Amino acid sequence: MNLDSGAHRVRPAAAVLLAAVLAAALAIGLAACSSDAEAPGGVPAGRPAASAPATSPASGGLRGTTEVNGFLLPMRYAAVDGDTWEGIAAHFRMTPEILRSFNEAESVAAGEIIDLRGVDVPQLGAGGSVAGQDGQGRVLYRVGAGDTPSGIASRYGVPLYALRIANLDLLTGGEWIPPAGTTVTIPNPPAD
User: Fold this and answer.
1) Which of 98, 126, 127, 147 could form a disulfide with 155 if both were Cys (CB 3.0 to 4.6 A apart)?
2) Matching CATH topology for 49-115 and 129-186?
3) pTM of the model
4) Residue-level pLDDT at 11
């Protein structure tokens, strides 16, 4: 057998180190999935999120409570004394102007519920409108000109993959851009 055929050999020490690192990463992942430790949003690690909205304290400087949906995406924030449009917007990685456009209040008051998604507000990539609900209570969204799957998913707080799965009948190939006038199903709509 000729070992000089140009193939690269892995040194035994490097292979052992790589195997140890992979085994440790797998053990940590399995421990997190099988434990009852709570992940962010109050859901036990390794368990699917409940379909009903959950709440959790906001972290990183905000003291109010953030309502998340079944996908653990933030939907609403309950403000407390000292909160500002700028602070809330920075925490949720948006501009204060966008956050204000989703809400009617001029200033933030303690106890106010702040909409983090702008579900009722047409926005870039999701300027269409609600066309009703299906028999399962899911929102039916009429696509507007210039809408994109990622814009629609962001507006309604659902992962892009979930939007695509809910609309498998509309997929025709690699890239899915629903034409204006098409009605798409929004999975797991935010609770009002």
Assistant:
1) 126
2) yes
3) 0.60
4) 53
CA 112, CA 100: separation in Å to the nearest integer? 13
Q: Spell out, as residue ranges, where the chain has pLDDT lower than 70.
A: 1-60, 189-192
Residue 29: other Cβ atoms inside 10 A = 11
DSSP 33: H
Do residues 53 and 70 lie in contact, with contact meaning Cβ atoms separated by under 8 Å?
Answer: yes
Domain 129-186, what architecture? Roll (3.10)
Q: Could you tell me which residues are beta bridge partners of residue 142?
A: 129, 183
User: Residue 150 is inside which H or E element, if any?
Assistant: helix 149-156
| Domain ranges, ordered by start, for the chain | 49-115, 129-186
The candidate with the shortest Cα–Cα distance to 84, out of 108, 113, 61, is 108
Fold category of 49-115 in CATH: Membrane-bound Lytic Murein Transglycosylase D; Chain A (3.10.350)
Angle at 126 between CA 122 and CA 128, to 5 degrees: 65
